[in-house]
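SAMPLE LOG
Freezer: B-3
Tube label: C17
Construct: single chain, 419 aa
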Amino acid sequence: MAEHDTPHAEAPPSLKDAGWLKRPETVRVFAALSGDGIETRAVGGAVRDALLGRPVTDIDFATTAVPEDVMGRARKAGLKAIPTGIAHGTVTVVADGVSFEVTTLRRDIETFGRHAKVAFTTDWSEDAQRRDFTLNALYAGPDGTLYDPLGGYEDLLAGRVRFIGDAAARIQEDYLRILRFFRFNAYYGKEPLDGAGLSACVQERNGLAQLSAERIAAELKRLLVAPRVFGGVEALFDFGLLSDILGSAPRLDRLARLIAIETARGREFNAILRLAALSVFVAEDAPRLAARFKLSNADQALLALGADETLDAALPGEDAAKRLLYKIGAGRFPPKVLLAWAASGAPADADGWHRALDLPDRWQAPAFPLRGPDITALGDFKGPQIGAMLHALEQHWIEGGFAEDREQLLARAKELAQA
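STRUCTURE (predicted):
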């Protein structure tokens, strides 16, 4: 039975038939952390996604057991227990190789960012009150019974991302909740955005400067692969937050076209590729964004593919596509073509661009047939001369469509040597 009941509100259904509740590892955790006055429930994302019929991967638990008791019970049941955040009530329990975060019910005493001072409790309503959004305060028992102390199920069905209590106060507890508000709307929301939440996000926007680069980057990456990503990003722009986050003006049109192309092609979404479409104008933008968000070298290299000066105007022509594939390799070729396609303004069903993107499936770039010893055999040439001759020969070979073989290139090399 639901703990929340409002007039005309639809009662949450049971999840008794949910497959994830019946997985052996889930059952083992429930069994280890139940009985003798201890109650444990699944909470948050797993419950929320199950109610929407979405796949459930990670499962988090809330429990009335204190952390030391959680660890003792888990180990007694033959499970591994790791005190990953024990001061704040969180223990990672590993069952059959699967990790679960188990957090003791708690209420916030003092809040300063993500490092709140907490007190443990056995009151499920108190635990719910300290969460960010009502749709994250949904709990499920081991038998699938739903507990909804704050009306989160009704909000979930309505696509309403609503802060628990006073929105500004909840944001001041952790300014990352500003980005989470837009991200959760991109995953679960429907228009319009909750007015109170939106107003609070705009009002408290300066607090984003207090957040670490890593936390902002992690949240931004999640937003960029959301089902309704463009709506979330556009809302951030419309209300003046996006340029502050990126440190520059965005390119919403290019992002919109990339999303349309990826969707039409059925491609897996990539957050960094979408960030390149959104934020990279010139080559200098890639290292700037990488430093701003503390991204990896691989991420920076992917961002660099979006720079305008590196886009070949001859694309999607076959010859230009072959030159590009030869130059950057099969791994970097698809993202480069996708970004060039999005920048071109061509529609998502443009045949020429489809053919260019599929080039690696029908053509393998050849290896240049000549090496340094081929040049030194022709005369007493020094390093820079050898390099210059090889470069000239390779460029000629590329511009000729990779048609000349080794013997033809050697003949041309001899002509260069004599000259």
